[in-house]
TrEMBL record:
Signal peptide: 1-22
Protein name: Tyrosinase copper-binding domain-containing protein
GO molecular function: metal ion binding; oxidoreductase activity
UniProt KW keywords: Metal-binding, Signal
Boundaries of every Tyrosinase copper-binding domain copy: 104-325
SUPFAM superfamilies hit by this protein: Di-copper centre-containing domain (SSF48056)
Organism expressing this protein natively: Chaetomidium leptoderma
Signal is among the record's keywords: yes
Gene3D superfamilies: Di-copper center containing domain from catechol oxidase
């Protein structure tokens, strides 16, 4: 019976989306690969979301909407301000108690991601939990550290293959207005993911912002991952991984080719339980993470202690924002359970389920995070780069 219901739903969704997206332009492969397609899709999504905000009389009205920007489109003042606010959070006291290694408010984010990883990846909450996670950070940077500028995202494809390199990215070029540079090159080191060539770093950051940053907890394979374990931050910027799994094509095609959220979230994560996703390897989610790699960037559980994590997940959220706002009426949905790969098996998630954010923020329901201009509490859009 369930399979028949799913089939009927898929057919219905497919027919609705076909009609609803009739005005979306058709793109050539060249336009997809060059970024012209994603810019146009981003513009349509931005306009549609802002039109909804313009109709609001309370909550997230158009004049209150915050504009998120690609890192290279931010002012130098905002880039510097964001980076300094993150460093400020690394000096604030933690909200977790009784955890030996959690020494700062930044460590709070690592501990929360560690605890929630088995529930918020390859599950119904992957997209929306991380959406709210980034929003909580944005609020902390504002409330605790006074940062009021744009919250950033990183379009990986602008730094991959023929269009650029990871080492020269304004996000990771090591300049005063970056998130620091690459790690010191370690001869003979392995790539963060099997089957890829090693990156151009591997060791501790040697200069630029965060070169003095101390990672306090992790890695996940240690005897007690939450025990105090101070060490440098390491990076291994990897152009091979970026060019294979995080290109402008990799960003755009999931948006164009996913008829429902079940397929969209599977293709974004490379969830091999779906044939459409089995063909894309580690996909853009893994591609963005392992383009940075290192410690903690390549640690599935503790990667949120890497400052680049939030720009990476900003782009994942931007993809979801665009996909939703191309057909808003039919894309306020979730699919799956509340455990990773449904292991152990759990019931299907519903919009009224709570997502865990304590102690760094009050809990919210899945449904409260569905609309970035919903005002309960989200109120932001993504500016096309």
């Amino acid at each position: 019976m369930k399979s028949l219901v799913l089939l009927a739903s898929a057919l219905l969704v497919g027919s609705v989306i076909s009609a609803a997206t009739a005005e979306i332009p058709k793109f050539t492969q060249g336009e997809i690969d060059s970024g012209k397609a994603i810019r146009e899709l981003g513009r349509i999504a931005y306009d549609n979301a802002m039109a909804r905000a313009a109709k609001a009389t309370t909550g997230c009205t158009k004049d209150k909407v915050r504009i998120r920007k690609e890192w290279r489109n931010m002012t130098m003042e905002d880039r510097k301000g964001y980076q300094e606010a993150v460093q400020c959070l690394m000096q604030k006291p933690p909200r977790h108690t009784g955890l030996d290694g959690v020494r700062t408010a930044w460590d709070d984010y690592g501990a929360l991601h560690y605890y929630q990883t088995p529930y918020v990846h390859n599950s119904a909450t992957f997209l929306l939990w991380h959406r709210h996670y980034n929003w909580v950070l944005e609020k902390d940077l504002n409330d605790l550290c006074g940062y009021t500028g744009a919250f950033p995202y990183w379009e990986w494809g602008l730094d991959c293959g023929s269009v650029g390199t990871m080492d020269t990215s304004p996000v990771f070029d090591g300049s005063e207005y970056s998130l620091g540079g690459n790690g010191k090159f370690v001869p003979g080191h392995r790539a963060g993911i099997g089957g890829a060539r090693p990156g151009s770093g591997g060791g501790c950051l040697t200069s630029g912002p965060f070169s003095n940053f101390t990672v306090n907890i992790g890695p996940v394979g240690s005897r007690n991952p939450l025990q105090y374990n101070p060490r440098c931050i390491k990076r291994d910027l990897n152009n091979d991984i970026c060019s294979r799994w995080a290109t402008l094509r990799n960003t755009t095609e999931p948006i164009l080719n996913s008829p429902n959220v079940e397929i969209f979230q599977a293709v974004v994560q490379g969830d091999g339980r779906w044939p459409e996703a089995a063909r894309v390897g580690i996909a853009v989610h893994g591609g963005g993470h392992y383009s940075i790699s290192g410690d903690p960037g390549g640690d599935f559980y503790f990667s949120s202690l890497e400052p680049g994590f939030y720009l990476h997940h900003g782009n994942i959220d931007r993809m979801h924002f665009i996909w939703q706002n191309l057909d808003w009426e039919n894309r306020q949905t979730i699919s799956g359970t509340n455990t990773m790969f449904n292991s152990p098996p759990t019931t299907e998630a519903v919009l009224t389920d709570n997502m865990g954010f304590e102690p760094i923020h009050r809990n919210v329901t899945i449904g409260q995070t569905m609309d970035t201009v919903g005002g309960t509490p989200l109120c932001y859009v993504y500016e096309p780069w």
